[in-house]
Design brief:
heterodimer; A: alpha+beta; BirA Bifunctional Protein, domain 2; 7-stranded mixed beta sheet; two-stranded antiparallel ribbon; rod-shaped; B: alpha+beta; Phenylalanyl-tRNA Synthetase, Chain B, domain 1; 6 domains; 6-stranded antiparallel beta sheet; 20 helices; elongated
Chain lengths: 339, 807
């Protein structure tokens, strides 16, 4: 029995160690350790062993089995890792081949720019609100200090629905809606569509977007207006941007200003982009006219405010260096996918 | 508004700023300079020379050789000009100098350098110049020769600077005047701003007539019937008119402002209009019938021939100047053919009036004739400016010896406009501006603006030409702009209470955007108005509700005349643009308002509904579209069940491939989707399959729920069962799914259609659907005895609908 075990052991280990493939190894496993394998045969012979010798022989059987098993495992690991190595080696790819992308959609550039503007003002404590696009004459003009027959009404080339209702020419109408709510202080921006009877060309569109801003509180100053828009310009166009406030006139603000920013292409030296001026006009603004406050029932002796309005398309054309406004409304995928 | 720097300097003689400084300073104090043309930019080394000798060129018939005395030297110049003669004084550009352009009037950027050289073998040390070569025109210098060298007057100082002599050290500025500053539509107004900007004394014009003859009241009677439209009417008269050319300085000033000089009388009216901003009109006195002027409204249906020979139709809101018999001019717009000044004029009436600005503007608009005069009147002029302007015109008549001024003035001005008073509150101004400007500095800005201050009452008296100064805030602006906007500090408002956020509706819209972009849709943007023809393109029923639109009364054209009631045309047009440009596929969406009138004609604002449209061609099918829509609704947290109801009524969609999405048990529609009807696709210029959907985002706002709650990840294994069934082709899969969901009860976790088959093996008019169902319990491992009764009940229920298991 002992000899038989020793023989099996020697023979098995020899064969296992010489196995060249997993198939051979598995065959050997069945041959020695399987249900009908040699070790099972040995165990079956245990009943012929004398009782006194059984513990010793039993131990030997177990040892032999364990030895074969561990040899088998060792060999299996070695073979597996060799196989893996070969497989890995064969799987080398050309990492310089192009990456694969999913066809995600693209946000419209105007909306991309709007998000930037919104983020800046939300960070400064502004709420983003909206108002009607088809609007009463009162909100678009009269409440903004542009009474009936005011020449400014002609200047803006208004689309009318009837005598009282029109397409708003400016998001400034939202100022009135917000102030009428009677909740002070106010700190809002209102992006939205506006309409003016301009023929379509590279820089004009009868339908475009503005972003209105309004702050009303106690003690708001023209210096606050300057500081706010200066901060906006720096965050939007870059930290080195300078602003220039030029006196201007809007019926609903006093004092009023137009704001230029130093050209973000040339830094103000003058280039093709800023037509050699070094400055680019970006918005109009001013202190809310006291009469406008009075008309919505806010006491100008107690409260003051500032307002500003900018053209979203203009900001988009500038920032994305788009040279023709019509591209924004054509929706050609080759254009849209660039944003 | 244009003005040359030299004209402005006539009233601000101490002004020394160079061209660029002037431009920048004026812009920063509120009189924006749009641009300026510098006359001497490309002129250099040009002196006045006198031709002393002319000899023929030895080798060229068309050239002559001139000896030219330049004062301290004499040079030889060869020229081809034929108008030169011995003794002529001419502008000469010397060796190394520069002229602005060629004699054909073409300007050369940077100028043309002139060097000594040989012309056909003869030395030439410079060039004699035409007015065009000096960068100017015969409009500004009418005495310059039409073709040839500019022969200067005999008193031109030989050896002197010709540029200086011709007044070309000058520039013309174009100013952008804001509508509130009517006073700045005049050279005087701009000069006053310039004086204030540079803190220099302002020398206005105070016209005085030296000598008059007769009395106007013996010649003319004036009546103003419609005083509401004519707050002031003044006139003076001139007899023994002596028409002639105006002096050079006056011609040049008019020409530099773009006005062609004609004769002294016409030039004076134009000059005063530019200088004072007050339109003047001159009538030929001998044509005024009854020697009487009556200012009154026309009658509806009247006609009148204006001085341009055109017949105009009048109405009762147009103010007319009449004589005793009939109209002789449209007030403030244009004079009449019959009373216009001709070369035979002997006696004239100068009218300087103030008409109602609004009425004038509306009349000019109705007549379709916006003239130089109406362009001024429409802004609402200061009636107190009318008389000084009139006096100025007569003073110029006297100065130019164009006639004899008749004594006296007719001045109908029943309610003179008084100067306003505004309290001077320096502390409030500082509090408003966020500045700390001392009182004295603030006051120093008012003097040059002719705003008077009374220290006793602390009141400011505002001149009547400053119609824009009404209250404290306006005074604050005056202080701000002369203190300099640049010098005002930059601060941020106290933001203790402020907390910024995006309005809820914007949050929902952004979420929708994010989902669509993840599905590969790009954002489009189209106009809010469209053509009513769109309805036919979409094959909408003639009486369909979508044809009720908010209609623009003054559109840019039919194509932009109605506010859209659907986003479909915008989407289809954008898809078609891509299709026609051979982009092989496109997936687009737009989030925008549609406008649904509540009643027509419109009495209140329409219902503006935020709407989503999305669609594609070249990728995917109906179920990709539906899947995207479903995912949007799911991710917006819409918990309510939705029904996809097959429809045939949406005329622009394929009748067999369209659905309405209903909520509340079919009571409310929130969306539609489908394949575009091939006929409609063709109308838009597309072929192949196009898919579109539209979702009423406005309706969703109230159902959106961004609250997310965690559901336990299942601990126990699931049991999966597949069912394959055969049914009539027309039975919608939705019916099967209703059965599965209902019978599945609490234990069914999900089900999924994994195969659809139509074909020979199951017979025509039949289809086979195969569903995989997943059952799971939260608290135990399911066994057959739990699931089998459910499967049995599903099979039984399907059988009731005529659906059999597929064998």
């Amino acid at each position: 029995m002992k000899d038989k075990l020793a023989k099996i052991r020697l023979e098995a280990i020899e064969k296992i160690k010489n196995a060249k493939s997993m198939e051979t190894l598995n065959e050997l496993k069945v041959a020695y350790l399987g249900k009908k394998g040699q070790m099972t045969e040995v165990l079956k012979g245990m009943k012929n062993v004398e009782a006194s010798e059984r513990p010793v022989i039993g131990q030997m059987v177990n040892d032999t089995r364990n030895e074969i098993e561990s040899c088998f495992e060792e060999m299996q690991n070695a073979l597996e890792s060799a196989l893996l190595d070969a497989k890995v080696k064969a799987e080398t790819i050309d990492v310089t081949l192009p990456g694969k992308t999913k066809d995600l959609g693209h946000e419209h550039p105007c909306n991309l720019i709007l998000k930037e503007v919104e983020d800046i003002f939300i960070g400064m404590g502004y709420e983003v609100v909206s108002g009607p696009e088809v609007e009463y004459d009162y909100y678009n003009f009269e409440a903004l200090n542009i009474p009936a027959n005011h020449p400014a009404k002609d200047e803006q080339d208004t689309f009318y629905i009837n005598n009282d209702i029109l397409l708003r020419t400016q998001t400034s109408s939202v100022q009135i809606h917000e102030m009428e709510k009677g909740v002070l202080p106010i700190r809002m921006i209102a992006p939205g569509r506006v309409f003016r009877a301009d023929e379509v060309d590279a820089t004009h569109s009868p339908c475009f977007h503005q972003i209105e801003g309004l702050v009303v509180d106690k003690g708001i100053t023209f210096a606050d207006l300057k500081g706010t828009l200066d901060e906006f310009a720096k965050r939007f166009f870059g930290p080195d941007t300078r602003t220039k406030f030029r006196p201007h006139h809007f019926p609903f603000t006093e004092p009023s200003a137009e704001v230029d920013v130093s050209c973000f292409k040339c830094g103000g030296k003058g280039c093709r982009f800023c037509k050699g001026e070094g400055w680019i006009e970006i918005l109009g603004c001013g202190m809310v006219h006291p009469h406008v406050l009075e008309m919505v029932g806010i006491d100008p002796n107690e409260y003051s405010g500032f307002a500003f309005g900018m053209g979203l398309e203009r900001l988009t054309l500038l920032k994305c260096e788009i040279d023709d406004m019509r591209l924004l409304y054509e929706n050609d995928y080759r254009f849209l996918k660039q944003f | 508004m244009n003005a040359s720097l030299s004209w402005i300097k006539a009233y601000v003689p101490d002004l020394k700023a160079d061209y660029q400084e002037f431009r920048d300073a004026m812009t920063l104090s509120g009189t924006k300079v749009e641009g300026f043309t510098q006359f001497d930019k490309d002129l250099d080394k040009i002196v006045i020379g006198q031709i002393t000798k002319i000899e023929p060129h030895p080798d060229a018939d068309k050239l002559v050789v001139c000896q030219v005395n330049l004062g301290n030297e004499s040079v030889q110049i060869v020229t081809g000009a034929s108008n030169v003669f011995e003794g002529a004084r001419v502008p000469v550009v010397t060796d190394g100098g520069k002229v602005a352009g060629g004699h054909d009037g073409k300007m050369t950027e940077g100028g043309i350098k002139i060097k000594a050289g040989k012309l056909r073998g003869v030395d030439s040390f410079g060039m004699m110049c035409s007015i065009e070569e000096l960068g100017s025109t015969r409009e500004m210098y009418p005495d310059a020769a039409e073709n040839g060298i500019y022969i200067l007057p005999d008193d031109a100082p030989v050896g002197g600077d010709a540029i200086e002599y011709l007044g070309l050290h000058d520039a013309n500025y174009e100013f952008e005047i804001t509508s509130n500053r009517v006073d700045c539509y005049s050279v005087l107004g701009i000069a006053r701003e310039a004086a204030a900007t540079f803190r220099l004394p302002f020398h206005g014009v105070e016209p005085v007539i030296q000598k008059t003859v007769d009395d106007i009241h013996d010649y003319l009677q004036v009546e103003v019937e419609d005083k509401d439209l004519c707050p002031r009417y003044t006139c003076m008269m001139v007899k023994n008119i002596r028409l002639a050319l105006s002096p050079k300085w006056l011609q040049r000033r008019l020409a530099s402002n773009g006005i062609r000089p004609i004769n002294n009388v016409v030039d004076i009216t134009n000059y005063v209009m530019e200088e004072f901003g007050q339109p003047m009109h001159a009538f030929d006195y001998d044509t005024i019938r009854g020697k009487k002027i009556v200012v009154k409204r026309a009658n509806d249906g009247d006609t009148f021939v204006t001085l341009d020979g055109q017949e105009r139709k009048l109405d009762k809101d147009i103010l007319m100047i009449n004589d005793a018999v009939g109209p002789i001019g449209i007030a403030g717009i244009m004079g009449g053919e019959e009373s216009k000044i001709t070369d035979d004029v002997k006696t004239l009436v100068f009218e300087s009036a103030c008409f109602d600005g609004t009425n004038n503007r509306l009349s000019a608009k109705r007549l379709g004739m916006r003239t130089d005069a109406s362009g001024k009147y429409e802004k609402g002029l200061d009636p107190n400016n009318a008389y000084p302007a009139l006096l100025r015109a007569c003073q110029l008549i006297e100065e130019l010896d164009a006639g004899d001024v008749i004594g006296g003035v007719i001045d109908l001005y029943p309610e003179p406009v008084k100067e306003k008073q505004i309290a001077f509150e320096p502390d409030r101004i500082n509090a408003y501006l966020g500045t700390d400007i001392d009182e004295e500095t603030q006051l120093s800005y008012f003097g040059p603006l002719e705003i008077k201050y009374d220290p006793a009452t602390r009141m400011l008296t505002i001149p009547t030409f400053r119609q824009d100064l009404l209250r404290g805030a306006d005074i604050a602006e005056e202080v701000a702009r002369f203190y300099g906007y640049d010098n005002i500090p930059s601060t941020l408002p106290d933001s203790e209470e402020a907390s910024g956020r995006l309005g809820y509706e914007f949050v929902v819209q952004d979420k929708i955007r994010q989902i669509l972009m993840a599905y590969g849709y790009s954002e489009a943007m189209t106009f809010s108005f469209e053509s009513p023809k769109v309805f036919d393109k979409l094959r909408l029923a003639q009486d369909g509700p979508k044809r009720n639109t908010v209609t623009i009364s003054n559109p840019l054209g039919e194509d932009y005349s109605i506010m859209r009631t659907s986003l479909m045309d915008g989407l289809l047009t954008s898809l078609a643009t891509n299709f026609n440009r051979r982009n092989k596929s496109a997936s687009l969406f737009e989030l925008s308002n549609i406008y649904l009138p509540k009643a027509l004609p419109l009495t209140e604002l329409p219902d503006e509904r935020m709407t989503l449209s999305f669609g594609f061609y070249g990728v995917g099918d109906f179920f990709d579209l539906k899947g995207t829509l479903e995912d949007i609704l799911n991710r917006l947290g819409l918990k309510m069940p939705r029904d996809y109801v097959a429809d045939k009524d949406i005329t622009f969609l394929h009748p067999g491939r369209q659905a309405k999405v209903m909520i509340k048990g079919g009571k409310e529609q929130i969306a539609f989707l489908g394949e575009v009807h091939p006929q409609v696709a063709k109308t838009y210029g597309m072929s192949g399959r196009v898919y579109v959907a539209q979702l009423d985002v406005q309706a969703l706002y109230e159902y959106v729920n961004f609250d997310k709650k965690y559901k336990e990840i299942p601990k126990y294994p699931a049991v999966t069962r597949d069912l394959s069934m055969v049914m009539d082709k027309l039975i919608p899969a939705g019916d099967v799914e209703h059965v599965i969901a209902k019978c599945g009860g609490k234990l069914i976790e999900s089900f999924n259609l994994f195969d659809v088959y139509e074909g020979d093996r199951i017979g025509a008019d039949k289809k086979s659907l195969a569903y995989s169902m997943v059952f799971r319990a939260k608290d135990r491992t399911l066994e057959d005895k739990d699931v089998n009764p459910i499967i049995d009940s599903i099979i039984a229920k399907l059988k009731e609908k005529g659906i059999e298991l597929r064998s």
